Amino acid sequence: MTNAVDTAPTTYAWEIKASGLVVRAGARKVAVDGLDLSLGTGVHGLLGPNGAGKTTLIRALATVLRPAGGALDLLGTAVGGRADQRELRRRIGYLPQEFGYYKRFTVREFVEYMAWLKEMPKRDIPAAVQRAVERVGLADRADDRMKTLSGGMVRRAGIAQAIVNDPTILLFDEPTAGLDPAQRLSFRELLQELGTESCVVVSTHLVEDVAAACTDVVLFADGKLVFQGTPAQLAAAGTSEHVGDSPIERGYTALLNQGRGSW
Amino acid sequence: MTVEHPSERLVSRYARGEVDIPADEVWAVESHLESCAVCRARLADVVEGSTAALVQAVWTDLEPQLTPKARPRWNPLRGLAGWTTPAMVPWLVMTTAVTLVALLFDRFARSPDNEVSVVLLLAPVLPVLGVAVSWAKALDPMHEIVASTPRAGLYLLLRRTVSVLLVVIPTLLFAGSGTSTALWLLPCLAFTTGTLALGGLVGVTRAAAGLIAVWAAVIIAPSVAMAQPSFALHHNGLPVWGALFVLGALVVAVRRGAYADLGAHR
């Protein structure tokens, strides 16, 4: 499905560009505090301790939350202004950490409904839905109701709805929660495949996911950027003195322990 | 072009898998079989019983997967999903039930000297209940996932509002027979656009709750207490309701961009 939009030269340097970004979670708490971040094509692992503001950042990137300050440009479009964001939202895929669904919908109906909400052309929807469902390995359950699925299958249905519109920006918030080890491996393969064409942001607290599937690591704590680099650079930051079972885990603790206690 | 078919004997030797056929002949037979359906059929006829049984077994296993599945039973929810969500259905049912209870009360339980019609008193806030649920974060499980899509915002909100009105207005048309249609239709529409307009500022659910509370306190309570029809639901009030309807619609049109944010979904 190549069209003019796909082949047109891009007018932006980075798919995601934040400068001094401030996002509030709720009325008072500032969850993202003056973030400067530039992300291009590839798989970006967003690592950080619980409460670091990962979910708030992802929600802002998904245009669900309006930035409270700073600038956020997605695909060259400023977010939060008066501008119409429909064009931008058509090119975003988003899997929230906890997502709901209508229990009586089948997997196919759920993904079709999301494709309709994403303003896909009506004639493209059936084929795109079938492809998305096959990519997450749910083809044999496509016509089963959502309520009959296991937790891992529901998450895969969630991944299918996120990728159904072939988005340029893909946002996954804790996608591997609830997947068994074999499913996590196939998900990592899918991530690598998606990362060749899109800007994929995966928030996780599982360090091994990052090591296996990401081309780039963004370490995030207390709403601020701590580190950005390749998994190898993250591993190099740790020494044998630091806590952790793998080089990347040691690098993670080394960078997060700067200036604060171990908890 | 004349095509030379391999001999019966050669085909049967090939089918049995004999090893002493020269390589160039095997190659010629195979490339011919690829393009000749007649010879493929001849080949199929000479295969041994065990091979035929194996082919049959494989075919039996594959057949269900190769035949296209019948489309699943049509799910009415899916057809309506663009207009109303499954989360709204119970609320629409409840709105209809409330209208019918109010109608029963008006017909049978009201004392003859009491001129207060419960249907008329409730009519303005009935659609507001449904609209409140159309973007309620707590009641709609798909809220978060839908909020990031391009259709989220005024477009979807208006579609869902229309579906609410399509349920409420016919019910009221049935329940309100006997009174002038304008007397309940205009307040009903004015409250609907009012909810949407206010919802752009504080969230649709909050706006709905606020408007219902104000209506209950200022109009419903005094009318019921004094057993007198409210001044607001009189023919003289109709121009005011009309003006409020237009004002609400204008505010929504002017602020249409504001609905794309989560602020309108609270």
Automatic annotation (TrEMBL), chain A:
Pfam families reported in the protein's UniProt record: ABC_tran (PF00005)
Record bears the keyword Cell inner membrane: no
CDD domains on file: ABC_drug_resistance_like
Keywords: ATP-binding, Nucleotide-binding, Transport
Example of a GO MF term: ATP hydrolysis activity
SUPFAM superfamilies the record matches: P-loop containing nucleoside triphosphate hydrolases
Residue intervals of the ABC transporter domain: 16-247
InterPro entries attached to this UniProt entry: AAA+_ATPase (IPR003593), ABC_transporter-like_ATP-bd (IPR003439), P-loop_NTPase (IPR027417)
UniProt cross-references to SMART domains, sorted A to Z: AAA
Family membership noted in the UniProt record: Belongs to the ABC transporter superfamily.
Protein name: ABC transporter ATP-binding protein
Organism annotation: Umezawaea endophytica
Automatic annotation (TrEMBL), chain B:
Superkingdom as given in the UniProt entry: Bacteria
UniProt keywords, alphabetically: Membrane, Transcription, Transcription regulation, Transmembrane, Transmembrane helix
InterPro entries named in the record: Anti_sigma_zinc_sf
Annotated TM spans: 80-105, 117-136, 157-176, 182-204, 211-232, 238-258
Protein name (database record): Zf-HC2 domain-containing protein
